[in-house]
Amino acid sequence: MMLVLNSFAVTTDVAQQMSFAFQVGIGIATILAAFGLGLLLRRLLVRRLHKTVLDNWIIQTLGILIIIVPTLLGVTGALAIFNASLVLTTLTENFFPNPHLAIGTAWSLVETILILVLGNGVARTVRGMMTRSLGASRVDINMRTFFARILYIVILSITGFFILTVWNVPIGIPVAVLSAFTVTITVAFQDILKNLVAGFYILVERPFYIGDQINVTSGMITYVGKVEDIQLRATRLRLTSGEEVSVPNLFIFSNAVINNTHFGERRSLLVLTMPQEDFDRDETTSKILLLLKGYQEVLPKPDPIVMVNNYEDSKVSLQIRFWVATGQVIDISNVVYELHNLFANADISVREPL
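Above: the chain's sequence. Below: its structure in token form.
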């Protein structure tokens, strides 16, 4: 009789374990299904909202919220599948001996995440609005970038103080920590701070603008490229060869910078060397000037000039000076090609622009 009872008890325990495992599996499947539904709804919502005027951070925030709603419903359904009170009791006894403290900490974490998302979103939105509004007021792009970044940093700082209030941290503690941290950073990262100061100088003084092509030279190193962005630590250039380089602002601040596109025109200088017997002062000069005036890319003012530069070894060297628009420097090659066809025995070299 005792053997039968023991067998029955074992069978009952196995059945209960199998039933519990089945309930847990169904609960997990319910949660995953709800989460998948949330992802599908987020995808449809984001795709729809991208066609509106809403900022991207608002769209992404709404996308996260729409995932949370069905996920919470899935968790509720999973708890309803099996004995919710037993699960909650187990979790409370094993993981949350102090439920009030756990709930308060969890709520503080939720508030922190929401404040971070909201603060970053507001900072990005205000930065974009300021950039657009200052652009409509014809404020140059350097100053727009400078003011927008300052406002972005200020809003993020305010967000940080809100987070401190959520965790009941006195303001004096982070101020003291920040002061000590500032002293340490100032001593340990002097070069970085110098680059930051130089970055502010470039944004305020405006030796060049975003979109200009510049030459930065120090010793044997020369960078030639289009300014893509002026950051606080470095300036990003797209080199004429296609690569991107980040030049430290201190490097730009401490060396000569040539702005190739500050003015609307650039001078071109060609040197043409030909045998003296092929050279006629009036005829050769008139042919070159007539050729230059036939090109729309060659500016009429200042006037093109042809000058005799050198007589040496039975050859005469001519300097040909003319001006082209800044964005049409590449058209110099067409002028060189036509000069070669006009004077087949001449040597032609380009001196400016490099």
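The longest helix spans residues 2-49.
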